[in-house]
Structures are given as structure tokens and as C-alpha cells.
């Protein structure tokens, strides 16, 4: 087992975000047909142990958006590689990384789990990535800042680290509109209820992000209302219109029944007609 190595540059701290863009220049990128579906891939790459094979599979799949978990930066177990950066460079993608943990280099670790760097989740894409951030969880079943001898879970005690579970989130601007993407690694050293509590944080975040987008772009909703035209009943014959003399007399239909005020107030407004995706908030995809 080697000793810890000094990283070539300062490593991020938990909740910090790293952004890179290795895509070709805009005029050199291939065009994407508007009708083609957006292809997404989610993969826990297990610290990038077989990095070359991982890159080979990702190149063959050729997804538009990647949500990857267990990204290592400068850890002995993964050959001191920046695994996410290597993938982004090899595939020519934009890249957002959220740091979860500082992986301590410790004699308690086995060679295949040895740390020395940091660990987290990432979103990679052929498209522009904006609003990349770390989503905080309200529930943390494992306190990773406890010393190993106080960890209640025996497997957690063998992987000393500092930090907490965090989800990477970003808006990806696809050819069909903005897409809200999450790359989550929920706590694995706990039961299903604790994991569901962390998952509920992501659902809560999607609602907040949709509301935020609506506040930033109120004209998008106004656009729908301006398009909606409700025909009004004619109260008199237009001056330019002539009624043929031979036309039979048709009695006017009876007026509709008058709704009571209480029912009118309780009736919901008619929904706006559907419009292009670019006028809608991002679709929420927790992956």
C-alpha cells in the first residue's frame, strides 16, 4: 500500500461544485434533429475501478446526458485518477461534479477502498449545463464525521471519511427544452425508510426549482394566456352581413341556465393550451 500522495491541485470540499466543458466549439458540434428523443444514462461507476472499460461502454451508448455516481478524484483505489474528468475529456462533454466526501487515507481501509482524495456525483452532457449545485439532505442516517470506533455500522467504520451525502443537480438545456437532472447516491448503510426520507428531499427540490423558473420567466405563462381566445356570442347582426329573404326563420336558442355565484367562484379556470416545450418549466428527472 502506497502512502498518501499530494494532489496536483487543491481538492474540493464537501458541497463544492466543479465545472468543466470539453465540448467542441459550437460551430463544430453535430446538429441534433428536433424530433429525436433525449437519451439519458444513469450509472454508478463504482469509483471508476475499470475506467477504460467504463469509457468504452459510455462511448458505445452515446447518451446525451449522463448521471454518474461514485466519482473519485485522487484516490489510491482508483489509481489517483480524476475519473469524472477523464470521462468528460474522452467523450467531449460538459461536466459538473459535486463533492460529497473527503476520503481519508487510513490503515483501516483495504487496498481496494483506500482513499487519499475526494468522492462524489456528477452530471455530464452534450448540452449546456447551468445552475449546477449540491442538494442538501435533511436526513443523514450515518454521521460520517464520527471517528471509526464510534461508527455503529461495521462497514462504515472501515471507510473513514469526512462529509455527507449530497445530490448533484443541474439544468441541462437539451434540444427539446430545459431538463432538470439529479445524480443521487442515497445512503447505503441504513434502511429503506431513511433512504426514502432522502429521496423526498429531491422531490421537494423539484417543486422549488419549478417555482423558481416560473418566477424568472413569467412571460412564458402570459404567452399562453394571450394565445387563448374565447369566442364571445354575437349580440347583433354585423352591418355588412345580409340575411337572405328566402332564409327560414330559426328561433334563437334559449339562454344557458344562470350559475349561482358560489358555483362560479368554485369553478377552476380553464387550463392554458399546451405549447412548445421551451415555454414549459424543466421536466424533473431524479436519476
Automatic annotation (TrEMBL):
GO terms for cellular component: membrane. Residues 228-249 have a biased composition (Low complexity). Residues 139-164, 214-278 are annotated as: Disordered. SUPFAM superfamilies: DNase I-like (SSF56219). GO terms for molecular function: catalytic activity. Residues 250-259 have a biased composition (Pro residues). This is Nuclear speckle splicing regulatory protein 1.
